[in-house]
Amino acid sequence: MPTDHGINSVADLESVLGEPFEEIKLKIRSDLDDIMQEFIADSPLVFVSTLDESGLPDISPKGDPAGFVQVDGNGDLLIPERPGNRLAMGFRNILENGRIGLIFVIPNQRETLRVKGRATLHADPNVLEEMTVNRKPALMYTRVTVEEAFFHCGKAMIRSKLWQPDKWGAGGAPPIARQFNAAIGGDEESEKNIQAEREKNYEEELY
Length: 207
Fold this sequence. Notes:
Layout: H1 10-17, H2 22-25, H3 34-41, E1 45-51, E2 57-63, E3 70-71, E4 77-81, H4 89-96, E5 99-105, E6 112-122, H5 125-130, E7 140-152, H6 155-160, H7 175-183, H8 188-204
Antiparallel strand pairs: 1-2, 1-5, 3-4, 4-7, 5-6, 6-7
Helix pairs in contact: 7-8
């Protein structure tokens, strides 16, 4: 390993972590089996990772009632889009190169599901209607053609104690309101007003 302690090659990496066990490699699939599809049907949250043309990554959470991500007859995933901040960074990345990575999470489940593939964007009105929540159809959806999928072990969840309520703490003040307020040089009252507007937005424009 170089004297600067950098890890600059696969050999360097494996000297630290070791080589992957052959049986672990066997869990990696090129499609979604029944157990994976059941997991997706129970998941209310997925983290979506994309890359722009320069290789800069973006990651965004997508959430809805459990089972909101559909698996169609071809084994593709359909992820609905709801109203958001309109930056659309991930969608712009998909239009540029189409590469995508997903992590599906289920509350109180230590293991997660990782999926990699290619993505395209669509707005078929019939599909959007099928994705209706609170009488509001989806705005659009992402179709993911699966190229690789596997379950990730639960060690990260165990170490983080994520699903243990007694470890959650108070949470503190909402960070977005604090950041906006600092940017405008606001006082405590203006921060409360900003947060009140955000809460109103969450209530009225969730769908």
